[in-house]
Amino acid sequence: MQITYHGHSCFLVENEGYRVLLDPFLSGNALAVADPGEIQVDAILLTHGHSDHIVDAEEIARKNDCVIIANYEIASYYASKGLKTFAMNIGGSAKFEWGTVKYTLAFHSSSIEVEPGKFVDGGQPGGILLTMGGKTFYHAGDTALFGDMKLYGEMYNIDVAALPIGDVFTMGPDEAVLAATWLRAKKYIPTHYNTFDAIKQDASEWIQKLKQAYQEGVRLAPGETLDV
Ligand code: NI
Ligand code: MN
Question: Which of 8, 18, 112, 214 is the most exposed place for a label (fewest CB within 10 A)?
Fold first, then answer.
C-alpha cells in the first residue's frame, strides 16, 4: 500500500494499480501540489460534507467516471447530480474490488454548504478504515477525541492512522497523542493543520510528543508518499 498525502485531510491510497482518494480538497488549498484535473482514481471516499473535504469530489468523479462512497445523505446528494455513488453509514463495512471500507465514528458535524450560508443535511460525519492488500489505513476524519478509539485499537489491526491535530475544529495535538496510544497503529500521520491560520500547529513537535508516548509519527509534506 502506498499512501500519498495531498494536504489538509486528503490522501491518495494505492495498491496493485488501484487508486482510492479520500477527502479531496486541492483547489483552494494553497499547500496542495496536485491538480484536481489530472488526478486519476478508481473511487472517492468522503468522511463528511464540509467543503474542505469534498470541494473537488464532483469534478474528479466526473473526469474519472468513478464512484463516490460516502454516508447515505452525501451519497444521495451526489446521486442527484447524476454521479455514481455507494451509500454507507456508521458501523457498516463494504467490499470493493480494490479493498474494504468500514465507516467509523467521528464526533463533528457534516452539513454541505450549497451556497454561502445555505446548508443541506450531510448526515453523520465518519472516519474510514480502508483495507487494501492486507494493510489497513485509518482516516479519522474531522473528530474530537472519543473513547471508542480504544475499542478500535483492540478490534482492528491498523497499520497507519491519519489523525487531525489542528485543534479548534477537531481534537488538538495532545488529544491526538492520547488517541495514538489507544489506536495501537504502527504509524501516525498528522492531518488537518496549517491549511488556515486558525489551525496552525508544529507537526515536528507533535511527532516528538508521540515519541515520548512510544508512538511513531511520520510527517508528510503535500505530495509525499509513505510505503506501507
Ligand atoms: Ni469538518
Ligand atoms: Mn475539516
Answer: 214
Judging by DSSP bridges, how do beta strands 18-22 and 43-45 pair with one another? parallel
Q: SS3 for 149?
A: helix
* Residue 175: per-residue pLDDT: 98
Ligand whose nearest atom lies closest to the CA of 195: 2
Give me the mean pLDDT over the 184-203 stretch. 98
Residue by residue, DSSP assigns 22-37 as ES---TT-TT--S-TT
**Number of the ligand closest to the Cα of 48:** 1
Sign (positive or negative) of CA dihedral 25, 118, 107, 178: positive
106 C-alpha to ligand 2 centroid (Å): 12
Report percent pLDDT > 70 for the chain: 100
Q: How many whole angstroms from 143 Cα to the centroid of ligand 2?
A: 9
CA of 34 to the centre of ligand 1 (A): 21
From the CB of residue 169, how many other CB atoms can be counted at a distance below 10 Å?
17
pLDDT in tens, 24-44: 999 999 999 999 999 999 999
Task: Determine the average pLDDT of the residues in 199-210.
Answer: 98
CA torsion sign, 80 to 53 to 167 to 160? positive
pLDDT of residue 85: 98
Close Cβ partners of 8 (under 8 Å, ≥ 6 residues apart):
23, 25, 29, 31, 32, 52, 191, 192, 195
- Which ligand is closest to the CA of 7, given by its number? 2
Query: What is the 50 CA–ligand 1 centroid distance (Å)?
Result: 5
Which residues, chain by chain, have CB under 5 Å from ion ligand 1?
Answer: 50, 142
